[in-house]
Amino acid sequence: MYYNDPKLQYPVRVDKPNPLFAKALQQAIGGIEGEIRVCMQYFFQAWGMRGPKKYRDMLLATATEELGHIEMLATAVALNLEDAPLSLQEEVSADPVGGAILNGMNMRHILSSGLAAMPVDASGVPFDMSHIYASGNGAADMLANVTAESTGRALAVRLYNMTDDPGMKDMLQFLIARDTMHQNQWMAAIEDMGGIAEALPIPNSHPQDEENREFSYAFLGFDKDGAQPVQGRWSSGTSFDGKGEFTSRPMQPLGEEPDLGLARPKSGAQSAQIGSGGGILNKIL
Amino acid sequence: MYYNDPKLQYPVRVDKPNPLFAKALQQAIGGIEGEIRVCMQYFFQAWGMRGPKKYRDMLLATATEELGHIEMLATAVALNLEDAPLSLQEEVSADPVGGAILNGMNMRHILSSGLAAMPVDASGVPFDMSHIYASGNGAADMLANVTAESTGRALAVRLYNMTDDPGMKDMLQFLIARDTMHQNQWMAAIEDMGGIAEALPIPNSHPQDEENREFSYAFLGFDKDGAQPVQGRWSSGTSFDGKGEFTSRPMQPLGEEPDLGLARPKSGAQSAQIGSGGGILNKIL
Amino acid sequence: MYYNDPKLQYPVRVDKPNPLFAKALQQAIGGIEGEIRVCMQYFFQAWGMRGPKKYRDMLLATATEELGHIEMLATAVALNLEDAPLSLQEEVSADPVGGAILNGMNMRHILSSGLAAMPVDASGVPFDMSHIYASGNGAADMLANVTAESTGRALAVRLYNMTDDPGMKDMLQFLIARDTMHQNQWMAAIEDMGGIAEALPIPNSHPQDEENREFSYAFLGFDKDGAQPVQGRWSSGTSFDGKGEFTSRPMQPLGEEPDLGLARPKSGAQSAQIGSGGGILNKIL
Amino acid sequence: MYYNDPKLQYPVRVDKPNPLFAKALQQAIGGIEGEIRVCMQYFFQAWGMRGPKKYRDMLLATATEELGHIEMLATAVALNLEDAPLSLQEEVSADPVGGAILNGMNMRHILSSGLAAMPVDASGVPFDMSHIYASGNGAADMLANVTAESTGRALAVRLYNMTDDPGMKDMLQFLIARDTMHQNQWMAAIEDMGGIAEALPIPNSHPQDEENREFSYAFLGFDKDGAQPVQGRWSSGTSFDGKGEFTSRPMQPLGEEPDLGLARPKSGAQSAQIGSGGGILNKIL
Amino acid sequence: MYYNDPKLQYPVRVDKPNPLFAKALQQAIGGIEGEIRVCMQYFFQAWGMRGPKKYRDMLLATATEELGHIEMLATAVALNLEDAPLSLQEEVSADPVGGAILNGMNMRHILSSGLAAMPVDASGVPFDMSHIYASGNGAADMLANVTAESTGRALAVRLYNMTDDPGMKDMLQFLIARDTMHQNQWMAAIEDMGGIAEALPIPNSHPQDEENREFSYAFLGFDKDGAQPVQGRWSSGTSFDGKGEFTSRPMQPLGEEPDLGLARPKSGAQSAQIGSGGGILNKIL
Amino acid sequence: MYYNDPKLQYPVRVDKPNPLFAKALQQAIGGIEGEIRVCMQYFFQAWGMRGPKKYRDMLLATATEELGHIEMLATAVALNLEDAPLSLQEEVSADPVGGAILNGMNMRHILSSGLAAMPVDASGVPFDMSHIYASGNGAADMLANVTAESTGRALAVRLYNMTDDPGMKDMLQFLIARDTMHQNQWMAAIEDMGGIAEALPIPNSHPQDEENREFSYAFLGFDKDGAQPVQGRWSSGTSFDGKGEFTSRPMQPLGEEPDLGLARPKSGAQSAQIGSGGGILNKIL
């Protein structure tokens, strides 16, 4: 169960409202790298977590935090839209800078939300919950979380570099710091579970003697001319999970050309595919 | 540029066609854990990669491999649909097992594809390219790839446990092994770049003195009663990236309650929000 | 800012796990009538609310409650999946009831989430945030909320009628009651703002003398034979908003047939559309 | 069955084509507040309506009208695109106003439709039929329709305020008036069915003694500090539906902390979640 | 402008309601091969058509017809849902046939629409208007229409083969016939514009001397071993458009390996990609 | 199975980077007319093809080619983003041209991809695999392919007309030529199968005596006043498929007004729809 405090987790101040930056900030709300994503991802992972209870608790804590980050960003978007132009009046169009603002902003900030945030990205595409990765496998989920916080921090850094508004920079410095923590936190959780090498191959509960071990640690090349694939840490030495030795080689097809045969009658295919169509099929085969 | 060989990378054999398993296999084609996703993700990462060339080469190699995996799975789906029922005829409905097959299969395998694979998941939802994570940050991308291969291997293992068809089990043993390799490969690539600890916080090119360091390594609790948050590897000791010390504490709001003021005239709000609506607003404020 | 308590708002108990009911319950999580929708809708309305502060407070309270409802339902889904079959083994297929369960359940509950809830509906379609209606107009938003709670309660009632599990019936009786309250609450909020009749036409801040008043209270018929349209409360008497008199009549076109002319050169049209294509266009015009 | 007349329902005239306004108008075609939505929503409600026939008739009439509104708006978009720039030629870029037009317009109006309307919103996102609310419950549907016409009229008003083109203003005055009527019409339909208070709680066919009446009229607070929730029309007095008395109070959790136990073997979880993974789980629990 | 007649274009009768067939019929409503698609596609093509007026008229006629087909199919779905089970009661589950019906049907037909049609496909995925192909090029649009009617008739034939309900078979015989006509109609329209060969290459208004004619009629092979590509009508002889001669050959890369260089500072990349990260990049390059 | 060569199929050169053209080029990558679509469409058609093997081979060849085209375009996007502005700094906003560039470009090229291509269209909407048309009917698929190449070439021509960058024009001349070939190729494939007239009505394996032949070649009018429909090649003469004679006439409804009766109890409808609601229903009926 959840509670709220009407205050914000961290101050949100906009010194000079900019509707273009409002559009950019939307990526941090409704983008795949944004806060709705991590908030809901951590909640669904927590609500479905089986195993040691402490991971559920940790996930709930940070999910709850992220909800407050959406709130901060939604506030920042609304404040950046304070003075946004509401019309295409000619005097505005004649002013290149003013015109460019209306042209460049997300028009739905005027038309749909009345100068407030929406759960969409910087292109106006709504967030889609298929991006909530919650696999039922704790290690896979933690990795998904490090990934989400990595693209999230890259996004926050790019927003930070884009603006020179002191209020916005201050808010982003806080959010960037939280992403630093959360990257560390999810990696620490993997350590807490025994470490990343031990976790691999995920799921580590599947017996590896039921996989085709000839291919479990082989880096395969698909160069047109059969050249040896590019070498690196991945092509020789002990595998990252410590359970095998990397090798590398060009790949050759081991299977045959598939043959699906003719189409069945009443399956909606053309006669030529079914074999009842007269001369065409016979001529061809 | 790309080339093809009509043969399959690995043999695909179905001993006893099962349209329900065809539906399940679709998750490995068009699901978010599936092969279209990794194929296209690695291609887009490669095509946009800036920095050392060898990562581009490695990404291209494995992207090219994954294209062949989609092909294998598409073949497996078509073969599992070989004898699928095409009608709801009464005798079939009366047969609980036969009826259940038609009821349970993806009807679009009959209606839309003519007994062949589609780029959809096990629920019939089409794959959506927003799941192609290619961030322009090499470490974030590699982590996204380990994540993708982790959920991919979990999926392959679940499919393996679901079927008892020897042909399908053989194919899945190969695919599970490849997922083992690819998890190791992307982690090895991070090692090759200097290691995961050094990579963090991603992006590591952003100077940490421009983040709010008070919050960079603090695990924050949001318990209703202000209790100390759950302890673990993430709450004390050196941070995973080696650049700080974990601390933990309950969080308090640092910001104020936001006040967006009244709505602007001509913004499409109600009069009561604008302040011109007569007594209501005055009564309330 | 937000807080959590690990306990549930109301007890969730499943007496006899049923993976088919788990699939049905998903509609109340990720369906357009479900709890993610109302939770996020109320949050975004609150975060963007301009005007009297008390509506923001009320929205925040109920949004926070709904987050706990998602949690309850996610728990219910996981508990209903407790004994779900993980394989298509022949003995199960031969058992019509067991087979039908596997056939009928959402296979992604096995393949993607490891027997836990997902943010998808009963067909497995992910929730999409475009359904978060937050218009910047308080009255429109309250109506959207009554609507959401109406379809929400209809859904909860249908789920209640579908199951005979005592634990699930108890939980649904609670959720149905909350939907009763929330329908009343949002209508009361409109009363609080002055009443529904005064709120109309939404937005009531737009001067009606800038609309074409000839058509503001006319019920128009489009019957092929020009018959008078069907009569009811909407075709005569004072309009619902008290600002006009209903009339009714068959409609005739007032505009002309549009003529977009020829296509422009270099616009990618066919020559015949541009006028340079030789005899065809001339022959026709 | 349906018929057409090539003439428009109301004249559509553009005095000064403006590709930016074409982009804005798209919201009224393919936006969630737009005409495709109401057209299809009323059709699907009509086609599925059970109960008194006159509601079906009324729905069909207005659905048919809305189809003509899409046509009007599509014509308006095409006319606004008449003189749109087709190239990024340098002289245009050097002209700040001209450049801003090309930059700001929906490029797909050039690239995909050849200067014509598309079923997308102002951000270029295609309309998605999940927004067709047709619940099988007449009162819920009527409320959904008032809501749709409310956001629809807010949108039309915002477009009206955005442009100063006399032709476009005239067309929008007509559409705004129709939205006024339709808001009144659907509310009148609810009156015709017995009134909004009697309709609640929707569905009113579900016996209220099968809901948990302790919570049916209670406004619950979720304030972190357990404060009394914000008071208003919703917190005391007779409920809007006249079937109860509003109360209010802070909420406490009534359920326990959920415990999903350990993950099942072969479910794709990590060993640490299953309990067979050795020391880790034991150490933790 | 549009009109309606409450009668159906063709009788719709269901002799034995079958909720599974209701689910299958949804593909013909909200599937990509279905009637919403052709209806809206023809309308948008008509509304944006530039050039000879008669094509607009023809498109409007058939678009209007298709609207009546959605109506017929929506009626057919509702009638097939007449006796659908509303509960998972134990006695039903114990009956394999009854259980299979509930398991197999679209649960949203109970939960969301109250036993009526929805604008979704047979998997429950909502129709998405991005499938409305209206390109501004008349010939491309006509081809898109033949394609739509081809997959549409394949779908109708598959539905016809799936059912043995006499009423449904009669309705489908009508719809199949209309698809026959519409395939012929759009091909005839291309003839009317001068013929398919003359129409190619679409758009035929683009001067072919501004394309790289070396590749305009060459069938290229991408066989791994450089083999000659598979021969057929497409590899030799006069091209279909009569404007060239088919040739064929294996393809070789004509471009170089792309080099995107290093990432820019402040672009959110890792240090190793930017060149400022110390030894790693230097070691690698 | 597939192979790669790191070189590009054709040179990609950008003489003057332009982030707005990068945005436009995205349509050719992730738009419905773009290269991901044809690439994946041909692959899925090939992988599911039943009937003569040579069509599979041809589809595989061209699918493989299209993969290389995505690569070319992704490279072109990245090169066009070389000098894109990364900030909203005031000096840039004050410069109308520079400001307009940042305003007009896809901000996600900065925020999400780090100056690289994404699988989205020119509006930033991600490509969705539902556009992969692979019907199991060879002729329908070939027509879908001609259609795809027609809108694809229209798009390439529009991009060609939009830019004056010599490198980009050269690349597009190549891609336009390939679209010319592919349009011819798929039409030639239909000829190879016996010709388009013989292929119709698709699927030609369905016996036409099982369709309602009264309507198989009739062009129907839906004019409000019962006028004869617009005449053309489609209204008289031998049908395109040579299997009938075109006729034309106004259409009249042949069915009755549908009556779905009352709603069932426990179906979630209002009492007024069920008949148990007291006087309302009786009063109305």
UniProtKB/TrEMBL annotation, chains A, B, C, D, E, F:
Binds 1 Ca(2+) ion per subunit. Binds 2 manganese ions per subunit. Residues 232-275 are annotated as: Disordered. This is Catalase. SUPFAM superfamilies: Ferritin-like. Mn(2+) 2 binds at E66. Signal peptide: none annotated. Coiled coil: none annotated. Pfam families: Mn_catalase (PF05067). The keyword Metal-binding applies. Keywords: Calcium, Manganese, Metal-binding. It comes from Propylenella binzhouense. Its cofactor is Ca(2+); Mn(2+). The lineage of its organism: Bacteria, Pseudomonadati, Pseudomonadota, Alphaproteobacteria, Hyphomicrobiales. One of its GO terms (molecular function) is metal ion binding. Mn(2+) 1 binds at E35, H69, E149, H182.
